[in-house]
Amino acid sequence: MVLIVLLATATVSLFPANGATLKSDDLFQPDKLLEIQIKMPAADWEKLRSESDRRNAGFGQLFGGSRSTGNRFNLYKADITLNGSTIKNVGIRTKGFIGSLNPDRPSFKVKFDEYVDQSPIEGLDRLTLNNNVQDESLASQYLTYTLFNKAGVPAPRVNYAKVTVNEEYLGVYSHVESVREPFIQRHFGSFAGELYEGTIADFYPKAVENIEAKNKRSKKKRTQAINLAQILETKENFNLEEAEKHVNIDQFLKFWVMETLLGFWDGYTNNQNNYYAYSNPMDENRFHFVPWGADGAFTDGRGPFSRFGGDDNAPATVYSQSMLANRLFQLDEIPPRYKAVLEDILLNVWKEEDIKTEINRIHTLTRNHLHPRQNRIDQGVDRLTTFVEKRRSKFESELEDWPVTVSGGPRIPAHTVEIGQLNGTFETDWYANRLDDVVNHGKSQIQLTLNGEQVTFSKLGVAGQPEEPPRQFGGRRGRPERVRESNPTVTFLGVRKKDGQHVSITLTIDREQFKAGKKEVPFRGSLVMFDPNESQNGFNNERFRSMKSLEGALILSEAEMKAGANIVGTLTLKVNENRGGFFGGGRSRGPRR
Predict the structure, then answer these.
(1) Predicted pLDDT of residue 357
(2) Full strand arrangement of the beta sheet holding 212-213
């Protein structure tokens, strides 16, 4: 009898016999490490991790590029085991944006119902597993969301997981509650409002479409987002009474103060990034903000993109790059309210000894289970502890001379403006190695107009070839590169007749899509003009600034990645100039306080 009981216990399913499902609370126990094993075809695993690459990370979003080309990452079928219980046929993909992408240890999104209609965990419809690449202490995300919740701002639950894929151990991940319907229902009581995720995006009329709609209501109309963008467009359109109609200002002040106090340089109020906004029907459809992507918190500086914009003399106590934060702080009524919220949070939320106790607890819990690449945890913990110990004094010194000065207006968010067209046909061959003299290959008949002027070429060539290897951008030096298959490109190089400027056009196509006969082939396209006498090696800020994005129809009548194979196609494209954001212009003008 004992043996039978033991066998029954050993085979406990994720779905008990009484029909109940596992509850989300069971998976967010902060004092325990989840055990997660993922099984998927080896070929799919290699494809997934190869997508965690900076070329697919959406640099176009920094330049205001179009978001209309669909998801950056593909879903793959897998089985996932949580603490010994298996859920079959889930969808899994990599996730992240620039700094957090890592082909050796990708972050993951796991969707339970992608291939099978199933809801195996009550209160969760997916899993988010963050690789902690930017969070060397492993404590930043946990502490950030915990403190937001303590301050009265809805934020995800977090704990830790040991993650293995196909028996390859990837180390300790942060298991973060996804901001989707279960989260919204639990915190706001209704999922009937508009839900948006902001990734280098803000509420501005020409850029509001770049804020990603996350439910059916927001995808259909975007009414509340457009209304908020309109009142934020100019200082003249904005006043507190109007703002209160669209945003729960009391809630936003707490959110804003917490982002600033935590040094969350990569959040909404400082970087127009990593946030959710929900128009709550239970609160007159006013927007409430939710933090996200908190591996960039607990930093003293403004982050790796500070050289592209922002104010070097900005106060520590007020982040003001975003449209809403900047417009609000220019109003006479807001600085006193902001100060009151900040003082309350310093008194009741920012408890240094409690925070340091949590840092030590997390360190003890995780330190014996790290991946070899997670070898800087001790330095990360030391930096985090120092930040916590020094933060209060910096804020209290500025509070003594309140209000602080916020210079200039908000950073205009990234967006694009159509400035030309690129149309025509081309014919060339496939070259297995990249060419230095594309201008002398293939033949094409294309018409390029920019700002109403037709560009004529003294020379113009085209080649099919592998994409250019990625350049390191903010990554850790010395890290060995993973060997992966390149995507194909159709590359044009021309010499403009009037001044000898080179015009480089690159259309990058996913390997699986590089086929003839499809109605249209999805691609990522860019156009850049440059002086051939200037060095093009290394990071070139001006060349980045001049880059134009391309969108439209690419049709391939012949296409094969085989030496000497014909590549023949037709182009009908729009040329978009990038405005706002990091590279397309700075902050709008505004009064000095």
Answers:
(1) 98
(2) 212-213, 195-198, 275-280, 286-291
CB atoms within 10 A of CB 319: 27
Token pair in block for residue 226: 């457009």
Q: Give the model confidence (pLDDT) of 572-584 as tens digits.
A: 999 999 888 865 5
Residue with tokens 């929900």: 278
CB 325 within 8 A of CB 335: no
CA distances from 457 to 451, 494, 519 (A): 17, 6, 29
Across the chain, mean pLDDT equals 87
Token pair 């009981």 is found at 5
Q: Which residues contact 319 (CB under 8 A, 6 or more apart)?
A: 256, 259, 260, 267, 269, 270, 325
pTM of the shown model? 0.85
Amino acid letter, 141:
Q
Three-class DSSP category at 260: helix
Domain boundaries, the chain: 13-181, 190-399, 415-474+484-579
Is 225:196 a contact under the CB 8 Å cutoff?
yes
* CA separation, residue 409 to residues 217, 228, 235, 288, 587 (Å): 31, 17, 9, 23, 6
Q: Is residue 582 classed as helix, strand or coil in its secondary structure? A: coil
Four-way CATH pick for 190-399: 1.20.20, 1.10.730, 1.10.10, 1.10.1070: 1.10.1070
**Measured between alpha carbons, how far is residue 221 from residues 215, 225, 231 in Å?**
11, 9, 18
